[in-house]
Amino acid sequence: MKKLIASLILCAVCLHAADDEKIVITTVVDSMGFSKPIPVTLAGFAGEVDSVLRTDLMFMGFEFVTPDKARYNIQKNSAAGVGAQINDPLAQKAIYNKAFTGGSPRQQTHALADDIATTLTQKPGIARTRVAFKGRARGYGDAEIFIADYDGFNSQPVTRDGAICAAPAWGGNNTLLYMSHKLSGKPDILSHNLSSGARKAIARHPGMNSSPSVSPDGRRVAMILSKSGSPDLWVCDIDGGNLKQLTTTKEDESSPCWSPDSSKICFASRQSGKARLYTVSAGGGAMQSLSIAGAVNLSEPDWSPDGKYIVFTANMGGFQICVAPMEGPLRGTATALVAGEDPVWAPNSRTVMFVKSVNHRRVLTLLDVPSKKTKEIQITGDASQPSWAR
User: What secondary structure letter does DSSP report for 293?
Assistant: First the structure.
């Protein structure tokens, strides 16, 4: 099989930070603890660079305003490649001046956006991250597993199997896990090396093997297996060894995700009737109901990388993306964000990707949680079940 991931061209960086001094950042947070968007101006950029930079920054905590309302002014500098100078009107001086070269203008722009975001928000950049998803390139026929840049560009198939597949999950920068009928004609969980194309089954038990989720430390996999009867939550080592059953309910469990420290697993269950969210220790123990107020029929949870929030789907006369803080005065209080399903966090614990229906087609969509701003990702065909590399 041909290699799926080309070697990345590293962007060379020309640095001449103004005054070589530390930038002091003051953040303003909303009631849920999210930093409010930083008001900035953007000037001097054109074409693709301007468009890409605006999208990148919008989903990393910035908003574009008139100069009189700006906290910072970002303008194109004269260096080779793609670069910017950032002026601080309050301090009346430039606080940043960098340029990125190597690769395409799009890659250079992503590198600049990540660096600006890291500098001014002190959060991880997401412009050079990737997502995996289940897609139908023509909108019909068998789905395959795809990967793409976070903004939908450079989409490419991981599988060309013509077999049922679902639920891709990153197992590191170079590995995907997913459910596939390719090897046995039944639902197995496969581990797929993206460089070599090599695949192996890590869960090939009787019945259903589905919904893999890799722990943040990369050591274990949570999954849903029906080998003992009903679909229950199980966990194993990353290679499939040391399999252990964590739940034994008569109802369906689904959609496992991990806490950032890899100690707990959050999942959906109908144990008490309507679907609710539960947690359980990854080492075993009793299920603990997660108290969520303001939303019902909960499924598809994802724990933010910083541990502060859980985003999930609620079915309240239609699918809604909701978020609930896991700490602070609003702990466990759901806020409905937008119509959609299948949410997943970006590495910055601010941006979410979800699926919405547009003219009977499923579309991957970016969401800035604090501002509720959205942008559809332009991927041909039908796309669902996103997984964000982080």
Answer: B
